[in-house]
Amino acid sequence: MKTILITGATSGIGYALALHYAQNGVRLILTGRNPERLQDITGLCRDRGAEVHSGIIDVRARDVISPWLVDMDRRYQINLLIANAGISGGTGQLDGAMNAVGENAQQVKDVFDININGVINTVSPILARMQERQTGQIAIMSSLASFSAWPTAPAYAASKAAVRVYGESLRGAYKKDGVKINVICPGFIKTPMTDINPYKMPFLMAADKAAARIASALDRNTGRIAFPWPTYMIAGLIGLLPLSWMLALLSSFPSKPAIDAE
Fold first, then answer.
1. What would the pLDDT profile of 43-100 be if each residue is shown by its tens digit?
2. Does the domain made of 2-251 have the CATH classification 3.40.50.720?
3. Residue 141 three-state SS
4. 178 FRET partner, CA 20 to 30 A, in 27, 168, 190, 203?
5. Which bin fits 227, alpha (ψ -120 to 50), beta or left (φ > 0)?
């Protein structure tokens, strides 16, 4: 039985991935912070024939998630770990009220804690165990925003750049140990995270279609899973521009809404 662990499975791409993988012969281990949504996705996946285990886990809590992951791996031996949990926030308006220029310190801290430290807290305990047994696969959720310096969402872009380079570096470091590392860089996917964006998003893709594409690429062990290709091409070209040109271009884009303080 293949065992797949997905963090942030209660919403967006994580939710869609759980549904995609749910079938007979698959064991899913799902985490999230919302008890109701976690119960919902757990029930749906069981209805599709999967064996499901779940835990209300905050990826920021290293002392909680690390021993829990090790325990899950001891019991079931995780074949595929998808470090998906993440949040986004920008410098735009929130509920019609103007925020101060830039990002406040709490938003930056929250984005970094979940998107960077949360990935490290998730990956590190299982990576060491996969290295010991010389097999396993780890996928890290980044973003096409990782290729550019976004003045409208500084912390988000920086956090996704950090985990992309981290994951791609790990791929080279652990290849000799038989551990597959993949980095996922989606463009605009229709999820609750993008539903709040007050602007048109080019090449917006449904979450279930994104999940199918990700799963197919993971099966092929694609190192960088970046899509849709037109958005990937544009993101890559913007990243090659001189900094002054890049900032001038990206500063003209609409701002992503800030994270609601509550």
1. 999 999 999 999 999 999 999 999 999 999 999 999 999 999 999 888 776 544 444 4
2. yes
3. strand
4. 27
5. beta
Distance CA 204, CA 191 (A): 10
DSSP state for residue 220 in the 8-state scheme: T
- Give every CB contact of residue 255 below 8 A, 6+ residues apart in sequence: 90, 91, 92, 93, 152, 153
Residue 3's contacts (CB-CB under 8 Å, 6 or more residues apart) are: 26, 27, 28, 29, 76, 77, 78, 79, 80
pLDDT digits (tens, 9 = 90+) for 14-58: 999 999 999 999 999 999 999 999 999 999 999 999 999 999 999
What are the angstrom distances between the C-alpha of 3 and each of 6, 10, 77, 193? 10, 18, 7, 27
Cβ neighbors of 234 (< 8 A, separation 6 or more) are none
pTM attached to this predicted model? 0.92
Question: Residue 96 region, left (φ>0) first, then alpha (ψ -120 to 50), else beta?
Answer: left
Nearest to 184 by CA among 8, 1, 42: 8
